[in-house]
Q: What sequence folds into this?
């Protein structure tokens, strides 16, 4: 769903619910979120030199089986992303963009794995972490 008004404000929203199971199973398929929600706000008035947006993504329960550690939930996190741009000239050919991914610095795993400990005492559960708070700046020239 998307809604805009004449003042340059807009909202987008989407929600997905997934029941993805193997035939005869009651368990959600591995690494398939049960729910995924996106909410976005944009400010982009016509003719303005500045535009910005805020996006919130929520990943619901997402299960993965990891050998000796069994079935684990790696979902249930929210990520906030911010972005903006400034036109440096009236024609809009020169722009500076800036943003912050994962603005709240949420620590979340995107995947799990296991590896044998060096000392032979069993396995170690590890996480592949998502993007930490990351700042970016860009300069764009249009032709």
A:
């Amino acid at each position: 769903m998307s809604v805009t008004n004449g003042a340059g404000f807009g909202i987008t929203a989407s929600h997905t619910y997934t029941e993805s199971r193997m035939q005869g199973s009651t368990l959600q398929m591995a690494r398939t979120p049960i729910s995924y929600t996106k909410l976005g706000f944009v400010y982009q008035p016509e003719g303005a030199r500045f535009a910005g947006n805020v996006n919130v993504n929520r990943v619901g329960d997402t299960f993965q089986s990891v050998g000796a550690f069994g079935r684990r939930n790696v979902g249930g996190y929210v990520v906030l992303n911010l972005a903006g741009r400034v036109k440096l000239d009236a024609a809009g050919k020169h722009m500076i963009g800036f943003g912050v991914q994962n603005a709240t610095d949420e620590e979340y795993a995107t995947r799990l794995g296991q590896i044998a400990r060096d000392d032979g005492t069993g396995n170690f559960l590890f996480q592949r972490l998502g993007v930490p708070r990351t700042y970016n700046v860009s300069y764009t020239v249009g032709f």
